[in-house]
Each structure stands twice: as C-alpha cells, then as structure tokens.
Amino acid sequence: MPEFSDQRAPLKPVSRWVPSPNADERPDGEVSLIVLHAISLPPGQFGGDAIEALFTNQLDTQAHPYFTGIAHLRVSAHFLIRRDGECVQFVETERRAWHAGRSRWWDTRCEQWRLALNDFSVGIELEGDDETPFTQAQYATLASLVGDLLVHHPQLDLSRITSHSKVAPFARVTLGQPSTGPIFSNISMIKP
What we know:
Blueprint: E1 14-17, E2 23-25, E3 33-39, H1 50-55, E4 79-81, E5 87-89, E6 95-97, E7 104-107, E8 112-115, E9 121-127, H2 136-152, E10 161-163, H3 164-167, H4 180-185
Parallel strand pairs: 1-5, 3-9, 3-10, 4-9
Antiparallel strand pairs: 2-6, 4-5, 7-8
C-alpha cells in the first residue's frame, strides 16, 4: 500500500509515494481540471531516476549535460505514469503541484479564460515524448487513475482534461508536451 498522506484513501493505481517539496496549498481548494504532460529525462530516454530527482530537487547535473539547464527548476506533478504503467505520486491532490507554469485555459463553465492553472488542476506526467507512442500499460493506468480522480473530485469530468501543449503552447522551458491524439482516443477506457 502507498505510504502517502493523502486525506482520502489511496487511489487504486498508485504504487509509490515520493514526496515533492515543490508544492503548496491550493488557494481555494478547487480541483476541476486535469493537465496531461509528457516527460523524458534526458530527452528521448526512458527509465532511471532523473524525473523523480527533478521533482524532489535532487537532479545530478553531472549525470547528463542536459540536466545543467533544468536542475534549477522547482517543478512537480501530482502523478507520474512510467512506461511499464507504474504510477508514482509526488503531491496530494488536495495540494497544488507546480506543473503548468504560465498557462491559460478556456473554462466553459464560467465562459472565461482562467490563469494560474496549478491552483485548480491535477498534473499527470506520462513518461514519454513526441516521437514514441505511449504504452498500453500507461493508457490502462491513466484510465484507472482518471476514473478514481473523477470519483474523488466531483468538479472533474471527461471534458475537463487537457494537455500542457494546449494550455501553455509557448512555454519557454518545456519538459515535454504529449501529442493529445493517442491519449484522447483512449479516453473511452476511463470509467469512474
């Protein structure tokens, strides 16, 4: 069983808890959006501990030249889904993870652009890049995780899932932006 201190029961697909210091309290407690990301560190390479090291401020700049340009970043996500489907949680969903950066999203419920997406979103990183398809194990874990999130956070629904590339298309530093086609074509797997 995961060791995390979420106020609710552990979400089914979470297998490990790795606490990130890069989080704080949500200003209004709202959880009404899911932002999907892709990440591989170093770029195009999968496996290893670099993603977890980045999210816990322990990235070794000597391990790869790319790391010197990102080690100063203070970022996190609520979840990481590895290539084999393992789900790692870094931040409780009731808290704010630092994943969306400077971003904006059109909220159809209030019919306005919303900023500061970290305030009300859950960040899910899928280990991958724009060149390599995500795995079926990742899709299965994502479907299970999103299904649990829909149950635990009633303001969420399938229309409130987006990708980082759609909310921050001009991000100065990006660790990965998933192609939304394959992810969203598998959205039918999600059942709350």
